[in-house]
Amino acid sequence: MKAVVARRYGGPETLQIVDVSLPEPGEGQVRVRIAASSVNPLDWHELRGTPHLVRLARGMPQPKDPSLGSDLAGTVEAVGPGVTRFAVGDEVFGYGTGAWAEHAVVAEKGLAHRPDSVSVEEAAGLGIAAVTALQAIRRGGLDAPRTWDGAGVEPMPPRVMIIGATGGVGSIATQLATHFGAHVTAVTSAGNRELALRLGAEEALDYAADPLDDGLARYDLIVETGGSRPTRELARLLTPHGVLAVVGAPRGDWIAPVASVVGRAVANRFTRKTLASILARRDADDLATLATLVGEGAIRVVVGEVYPLERIADAVRHSESGHVRGKLIVRIAR
């Protein structure tokens, strides 16, 4: 089978498409024939081996496993012992390792059934970024649509700011926060303001021109997907019990495991406010929740551009540029 590998750490120029053996599923694993994948910052962190903590996990001085890619959508081709939720022929999506390939073996808990109304390209964008968005929104206490029984005064909706509101994580987070009843302020580029409003934001700010700090501590949750703003500046915008959920950092200089260490170090500056570093936890229930929401039309995947597998290096360069609308999809099956 064809697979993308990088046998040394480096940039997109190190990527190769090679023939490798078909993997066999083990206990609790599923082999998927992959129709589409996507590109996440996590993928090029692993490609480059940055920060160096990544190399402790992947191997030094070169990767122990040269395969790459996380998100996938495709068809179950074989199941290992102990698998109960999937059968051969099921259409699935999720994330694991080695997804930039024609086939991959994935843990059962890393998959969910793909709704019939969702294309494989859309489903391929529902992996790490969407789970990260859902877990960030939940960290802020938004985990169900708000209801009101009509008694007393209707409570004010929670106020949420999404920084990077039209990227892979941000576009899903904006829709989820809106679905769960929040008033959403989106921060994005001038060219993407209309998209942010279509995704459900009540207002959209231009990150390059509009000030975020208006002197009011009014946000119950801020989801920061790019790390472009100082933590102290964003903390001033939170309500007394507000949550700042940090997903990434500028130019990929760190990722969430490192940010969590920093978060603990500065937590005393937040008093009752909370700084949370979000790194997606593999969770079958979260994938199933996302499948339901996208199947019902409550949220949608914004597909920015679709690349063939042969142009995987170009897709990675596009992702690293930071100028991505929605998700970059990689088409595997012809």
Structure description:
The structure is a single chain. With 334 residues, the chain is of the alpha/beta class. It has two domains: 156 residues, Quinone Oxidoreductase, Chain A, domain 1 (Alpha-Beta Complex); 141 residues, NAD(P)-binding Rossmann-like Domain (Rossmann fold). Helices cover 26% and strands 26% of the residues. The chain is built from ten helices and 15 strands. Strands 3, 4, 5, 6, 7, 14 and 15 form a seven-stranded mixed beta sheet that branches. It is globular. It comes from Microcella alkaliphila. This is NADPH:quinone reductase-like Zn-dependent oxidoreductase. It holds the Pfam family ADH_N.
Number of strand elements: 15
Number of domains: 2
- The number of distinct helices, counting runs of at least 4 residues, comes to 10
Please identify the top-level CATH class of the largest domain. Alpha Beta
Describe the largest sheet. Answer: 7 strands, mixed
**Which architecture of the largest domain does the CATH hierarchy give at level 2?**
Alpha-Beta Complex
Structural class: alpha/beta
CATH topology of the largest domain: Quinone Oxidoreductase, Chain A, domain 1
- The CATH homology group name of the largest domain: Medium-chain alcohol dehydrogenases, catalytic domain
Which spans have pLDDT < 50 for at least 5 consecutive residues?
Answer: 256-266
Tell the overall outline: globular
Strand percentage lies at: 25-35%
Alpha-carbon distance between the termini?
Answer: 13 Å
Rg of Cα set: 20 Å
SSE order: EEEHHEEEEHHEHEHEEHEHEHEHE
Helix content: 25-40%
Average pLDDT, to the nearest integer? 89
